[in-house]
Amino acid sequence: MKALADISNFQISEVGEEVCPKCGSSFKLYHTPRGVLGACKTCADRELIQSLNLPTVEDLQKMKLSKFVEQLEKVTSDIKNASVKGYKPTHESQIKAKQIVIKYINEFDGKKSIVFSGNPGVGKSHLAYAATKAIRSKGYTAVFIKSTYLLERIKASYSLNSNVSEEQIFDMLERLDLLVIDDIGSEYVKKNDGYETWASEVLYKILDMRIEKANIYTTNYTESELTDKYGNNGPRIISRMLNKAIAHRIEGKDYRRQEVF
């Protein structure tokens, strides 16, 4: 009984600090009935989380981004099964485009970009989506989306009934390892005596936030045509599209068209 009484009257006091040899965090030491004791809370918390098999903050962010990709990506049936191997070039420029994509996938570093231009039906979207799937299969986050649909989704976020805000969409787009915007220039841009339209302003904002990241852009327009289409924003948009990018124009016949008369 005397021993129990002695323990109950014991005053625990702080006696110093120690650096954890595992993580480098500091923790306090206390004088206790069992001697001087202390424990690293950082390591103890980590071990508890591991034992419970809970997702980390990084895991949760990746899950959120993957869900965003699933909801945002919309692919037409003609390229749904596109692959690099399945692209059959019929023109010298198409052979070069395929080589560019193969190298891009093999050497992907999350920083370089590709700009494919050319008439409809030469395989720009096919190669772009094939690259998206290949990069994604390597564990990176990537999304393929047409410029018109992307702008529609952003405009829809302004509705009071929307479950996602414009800011959230921009945040997710910025965090992607690879963003592929297909058919740039197909969106309607109304010229208004030099004043920028909403579409060109939003497109510029997206390209600007992605300037140090990996992107693939496709367009039916030439550089000068896009510059003219986007007015005062034209040179800024083109500049960001071409930043750290391989630009290549694909020639050839429209594989979607067949002569009907």
TrEMBL record:
CDD domains: AAA. It holds the Pfam family IstB_IS21. This is ATP-binding protein. InterPro entries: IstB_ATP-bd, P-loop_NTPase. One of its GO terms (biological process) is DNA replication. One of its GO terms (molecular function) is ATP binding. PANTHER family: ATP-BINDING PROTEIN RV3427C IN INSERTION SEQUENCE-RELATED, CHROMOSOMAL REPLICATION INITIATOR PROTEIN DNAA.
